[in-house]
Design goal:
This protein has 1 helix and 11 strands. The protein is mainly β. Strand 4 and strand 5 form a beta hairpin. The longest helix is centred in the C-terminal third of the chain and has 9 residues, at about 130-140. The radius of gyration is 17 Å and the shape is globular. The relative contact order is 0.26.
Length: about 170
Amino acid sequence: MRIGLDGMDAHFYVQPTVSSRIKTQDVDVIRDAHLQLTPSGSISSSKRPDFYWKEVGVWDFDPVKEFISYRWSADPAPFIVSQDKPQQPTFLFQADRWGFQPGRYEGSLRLSRTAEHSPLTKNFCLIMSENAVKEIQGGAGDRSIYFFRNDLPKFASSKYSGCYVRETD
């Protein structure tokens, strides 16, 4: 996942892979996407952000500058998933006038499907260090984007317990 600030608004970029695990001729329609992030532990009394699905985008990589940038590609809209065509959209969620503070957050990404199917939900945790918060706040003016990962070997300790952590921590 990628996180940033645009002025005073928190941006949360998520790029899930949505596919069908069983062979079927039927298609599924993802109607809506919801992101929830709840401060926990020492920051549990903090204000919970109210994220909304702002848009869908794509990542552009400039190999000369070794720089990745984001650009808009579509407004929020339903999309089709079939067994032979998995989807990997980049959702941009925004929380107006909200910023991160150091601590642990419990999150979930919920994709609403057609009425016949229950939503798809992925729970996760995010650990925001003091350095990561300062870095994100420092990049608010130029809309910088920061990578958070949960799969690096250095984050395998129980301190991180599989949570997403700023890759430079």
